[in-house]
Write a structure and sequence with these properties.
It holds the Pfam family DHHC. It is found in: Membrane. It catalyses: L-cysteinyl-[protein] + hexadecanoyl-CoA = S-hexadecanoyl-L-cysteinyl-[protein] + CoA. This is Palmitoyltransferase. Strands 1-8-9 form a 3-stranded antiparallel β-sheet. A two-stranded antiparallel ribbon has the order 2-3. Strands 4-5 form a two-stranded antiparallel ribbon. The N and C termini lie far apart (52 Å). It contains 12 helices and 9 strands. Helix 8 runs antiparallel to helix 9. With 355 residues, it is mainly alpha-helical.
Length: 355
Amino acid sequence: MRRGWKMALSGGLRCCRQVLSWVPVLVIVLVVLWSYYAYVFELCLVTVLSPAEKVIYLIFYHAIFVFFAWTYWKSIFTLPQQPNQKFHLSYTDKERYENEERPEVQKQMLFDMAKKLPVYTRTGSGGQFIQNHLGREFSKKLRKTVRFCDRCHLIKPDRCHHCSVCAMCVLKMDHHCPWVNNCIGFSNYKFFLQFLAYSVLYCLYIATTVFSYFIKYWRGELPSVRSKFHVLFLLFVACMFFVSLVILFGYHCWLVSRNKTTLEAFCTPVFTSGPEKNGFNLGFIKNIQQVFGDNKKFWLIPIGSSPGDGHSFPMRSMNESQNPLLANEELWEDNEDDNQDYPEGSSSLALETET
């Protein structure tokens, strides 16, 4: 009886949380719908007197609005991509792992399972765990600590993280955004960036075209009618959102230029050779192509064009001779550099080709 009551309460709370998670999206939708009404009807059709000016304003406005709404829709309803089945533990491996009580043996089991997978990042908190300071023995142990999700029961691919809100592991997870009620990752990061860009453009266009009429209302050159309040408030809202959005967009542009995610910017990824904050930095142009693809005609259109499958990514290399894939692709099936000596102080990374 008590157990059933607890389950019902838990289900009710989970349902309420799912409903409330759509409140930020609803707020954005209502603000956008009001801005559409205020701009199209109260400004263009009522306030603007010149027919030519009306047509020009409406054409450019709707062109921006279509891409703005399209990218917002894609950001919301493009589901986060999860690791494929080969990264999940089999039923037998799962039973063995859960029944094993010794942590060191569990780590070794995960390391053995990860040998056949293109996984090169390890657990660690970044910055301080380097061979120079802690010695080679600790570094070898660090390289053997495979990233594992005990909730999804899978070995995490590089750049994959578990989202507690979505309750799943997300490939190349950037962050969970409440304003789109979705987890931003490999499958929809391009759409999220485009949404920010078109949001900035949308607010900027509204502010610049409304400003002259704001001045006219302020000076009393136009009659004080109902449209006045819509126009004044429209300028205020556009400027307010523009400032916040341009800061957020600028930050993500910086992340793209360095080929980083938000999580990687706050927590340095750890590779088999140690922490490296620029481990995925391939250079400015290639970093952009990692998000938008090689074909530039798709860069401004919300169509999936990011290269790869989200499970493996090219890595920066200081020395191509350390490239495990150029040397032999069968290295995934052999012992992964278990006996390989790394020179002290070296932070070079293996260059991985996308699969």
